DNA sequence: GCGTAATCGAGACGGTACGTCCCGTCTTTCA
DNA sequence: TGAAAGACGGGACGTACCGTCTCGATTACGC
């Protein structure tokens, strides 16, 4: 969407003060819009296109970010572009909840829109260089995920091992899904359920 | 393994000069050589450079593959370019072996060379479009990993649950490492060890 | 007429399958067809296109000619591709006849089809190298033109100077038209008529 | 002189950074330099080489001209690249002067360097398409030639017919030479002298 | 009448230039 | 005076042809 948007907010702010904050926002929302519209992959979303979509000069983008990866990454980390992990259901039965979450996640995210966004995020990280790494490092992505939160809660009420590292467990569960998401196709449900079994029960024979 | 553009119909009676398998191979080995020499990242390895290194015309590359990503990906999947996972030690103590493997993997692969290659692989996947997906889908990358092999062996002698899915367990262990590898910096050893505990013992309190 | 690369020695005892005269003809007619259809300029008529149009292998063309210029030139010189100079009218009044011829030539040839063909011929000469030069040198293009014929006839009956070189006079009349044909647009009739006056009357004041 | 793609409308209020006249000039001088240095023919002078020689991006060339032919043609028509016709001697004897000029022109220009440049010019014309035609149409190439100038002067002092069209006479003299220049080899001096006789004396018997 | 040899159409080969697109920087004009 | 517009130098892309080469199939001649 381009021409129609004469945003009243940006119209007023344009007067006395520089539009800087408005432009900054416009870039992030434009980036999110382009990436979610389903028409463009990461590589197709050029800086020029973002600038045009945001109604912003290219230089304005380079004033705030070092490159496209930074823009995309900030769009993700600030929530303009959500890699929407579903919330974990709360039936009281942890295994059933996790199984439900995995299934839902697979169903929800194995749509082209979500895959494209995940790829974009990874691309941004991969091509972004050192400063994007630090951006992500500060984001505590696993620690704040719905899965980690749930596992932490279960541990705190004693249902899970006291020495459990919730972020590690969440990573063990979610990382394989993410890798599958950006690479191969949707895995079998049985494969995903095995994952839950492993994380909960471990591999040892009893 | 033939190129991604290979057509089963053409197996009948192809007219004209047949495609040169030698050129095909030369491209893959040249790609591997460039990516391994430590001098170039994925983006620095241009199609023209590959062609020059392989002593091949650029058009020949585009005759076999749709783009650079396809070339790199096939180089990986055919083993010309190895993402060298360390072998798992065999002391008899599975936990100790996996811990050792994780530590070694972290040490070995968190060198710029390995990270670069991982980034290249991911870039190829992410920019490659649909046909690279199918290439990877057929690759059984986790099923063939040293970790999956070891877990399968342990299961077969009864030390691990009979219903264990080795590839899922291997994914639970390795995927988080891969994601860290291509994104943030080297994780703490303690974080990695938590991962081993989860995969072996599970999360449940005893 | 055989191709420029034809070797008289080889005509005697050639082994193997003889060259196909049919293919040779097909190439020339295909070249003429492509160049006259109005769709292609000289540069657009590639060897590949000629081969396809003629239903002939590319190598067959290179077996007979050294390059495209040779093909086009032979097509012209053998009459497959005619640079149709109109005949000169024969009313008995030389000046009127030449004026009429000039006007008709301008009208007829300043159509895109003819211009394109003239350009093609010139291109062939310009890009063709030494052997195409000799081809043309042997063709006596001005000596055989309708204008030269007419001037020669008039000279032989004593109406023109006995020492007149008909080919030079024809060149003086036709060359400016050809150059205009391949470069600028149609000249004024008055400009063309001045040309006739100069060739007939000369420039001296009387 | 502005480029062929220049648009009169754009003269009003152009936004953004204005086009660099310096780059425009640099391209033309670089083109002339390459074509004059004797090392390259028209086909050897690639757009990339021009850009490099001019210290200019390739895109900048395509921003001003539609193709290489346009560049070369403008270089010629703006005098950056001179098709150096010799000046006509001034002994007072017009016939002797023109004969001398013809001989000198033949000697001077039938060197590979001049032929190469003439071929380049013709190639540019022939491959340039419609917009190069208009460029040339406006160029008055014959009207400004040394020969036309001399003829005009002689007419103005009454030695040549008052109704003589100098450009037509110059064309009658020079065009045959140009055509010979780009096609066959150097003509006989006698042939060239016949040309002068025709232009001065005309063809009629006296 | 059977091999030998050169041709045929077809199309891939190593090259090279093309014209387009994008990067990240710069230089204007406008509000 | 800050930002939009857009040209700049640079460089990779994917396409189109060039002229050569290699296929299987075909077609003549000489043995």
Automatic annotation (TrEMBL), chains A, B, C, D:
Superkingdom of this protein's organism: Bacteria
PROSITE patterns on file: HTH_TETR_2
Annotated keywords: DNA-binding, Transcription, Transcription regulation
Gene3D superfamilies recorded: Homeodomain-like, Tetracycline Repressor, domain 2
Positions of the DNA-binding region: 46-65
Coiled coil stretches, renumbered: none
Pfam families according to UniProt: TetR_C_11 (PF16859), TetR_N (PF00440)
Annotated ranges, domain HTH tetR-type: 21-83
Region (Disordered): 1-22
PANTHER family: HTH-TYPE TRANSCRIPTIONAL REGULATOR RUTR, TETR-FAMILY TRANSCRIPTIONAL REGULATOR
Protein name in the entry: TetR/AcrR family transcriptional regulator
């Amino acid at each position: 969407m381009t021409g129609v948007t004469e945003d009243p907010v940006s119209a007023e702010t344009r007067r006395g003060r520089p539009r800087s904050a408005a432009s900054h926002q416009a870039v992030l929302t434009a980036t999110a819009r382009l990436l979610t519209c389903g028409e463009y992959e990461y590589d197709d979303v050029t800086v020029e296109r973002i600038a045009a979509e945001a109604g912003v000069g290219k230089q304005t983008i380079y004033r705030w970010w070092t490159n496209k990866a930074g823009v995309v990454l900030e769009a993700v980390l600030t929530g303009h572009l959500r890699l929407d992990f579903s919330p974990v259901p709360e039936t009281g039965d942890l295994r059933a909840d996790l199984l439900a979450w995995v299934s839902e996640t697979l169903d929800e995210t194995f749509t082209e829109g979500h895959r494209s966004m995940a790829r974009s995020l990874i691309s941004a990280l991969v091509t972004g260089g050192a400063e994007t790494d630090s951006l992500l490092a500060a984001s505590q992505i696993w620690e704040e995920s719905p899965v980690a939160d749930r596992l932490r809660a279960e541990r705190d009420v004693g249902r899970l091992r006291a020495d459990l590292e919730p972020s590690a467990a969440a990573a063990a569960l979610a990382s394989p899904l993410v890798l599958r998401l950006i690479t191969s196709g949707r895995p079998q449900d049985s494969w995903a359920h095995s994952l839950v079994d492993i994380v909960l029960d471990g591999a040892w024979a009893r």
